[in-house]
Design goal:
This protein has two domains: about 120 residues, no CATH class; about 90 residues, no CATH class. Helices cover about 40% and strands about 15% of the residues. The protein contains ten helices and nine strands. The chain is elongated and about 60 Å long. The termini are close together. This is MULE transposase domain-containing protein.
Length: about 240
């Protein structure tokens, strides 16, 4: 797949067969130009459609005029040296987040609000289904994403105290604190969250109309998956 149907160069970079972490970058010069001009990027990865020998396909989307345009895969400073997005919206994938933060240290990285709510849902699905009042209380947890970051830990404690002491809810509270808040042990040692508050908090971005979810990128993936028609397709 070195070129598009229109004859444009599509394989922009190949780190080489000797690279144990080999990666390919697909896109066109027009794609790179859009990324360079866009202040907001959205990115998401898919494992099922990655070709054999490759772990993941990561797709970057540029926001333009309030909409999002697919760019067919992420870029690299070597290919797009002037690209300095102000914000990147990603899924909760530690490796992807770390990579983007390494390449663009001055860019604000945020995580998808929809996936935050989904991660909570997975822990208490039965409670949501059978108790509407409890469901309303649980929804206060993802609502913390819209509070001032400095207020989130105390507000989380208040929300947690208002929940019933069931094993399922206890597991949810422990999971959310461990993963998204962080905790201070009895010894005084603070254990940082897997995804610190600044990654998923939308207190500033929401009034500015900044995107909160990567749903548009996932929609592209669904369309791409339907086009490919199989898992782990060959690139030959």
């Amino acid at each position: 797949m070195p070129a598009t149907a229109k004859g444009e160069l599509f394989l922009l970079y190949d780190s080489g067969a000797d690279d144990v972490h080999r990666f390919l970058i697909f896109g066109t010069q027009r794609n790179l130009g859009m990324l360079q001009r866009s202040k907001i990027w959205l990115a998401d990865g898919t494992f099922k459609k990655a070709p054999p020998l490759f772990a993941q396909l990561v797709h970057a989307t540029a926001q333009k005029d309030g909409g999002c345009l697919p760019e067919d895969v992420g870029t690299d400073p070597l290919l797009c040296p002037l690209a300095q997005p102000q914000q990147m919206l990603l899924d909760f994938e530690k490796g992807v987040i770390t990579s983007f933060e390494h390449v663009w240290p001055n860019t604000v990285v945020k995580c998808c609000f929809f996936h935050l709510t989904q991660n909570i849902w997975r822990h208490v699905q039965s409670a949501y289904t059978h108790d509407e009042e409890l469901a309303m209380r649980i929804r206060r947890i993802p609502a913390l994403a819209f509070a001032r970051p400095a207020d989130v830990p105390d507000l989380f404690d208040q929300v947690a105290m208002d929940l019933p002491l069931t094993p399922e809810i206890g597991e949810l509270v422990d999971y959310f604190e461990r993963t998204y808040i962080g905790r201070t042990l009895a010894t005084g040692y603070h254990v940082a969250a897997t995804y610190p508050i600044h990654l998923w908090n939308n207190h500033i971005g929401t009034p500015l109309g900044l995107p909160r979810t990567t749903n548009v990128v996932e929609a592209w993936h669904r369309s791409f998956n339907a086009t490919v028609g199989c898992h782990h397709p060959t690139i030959l």
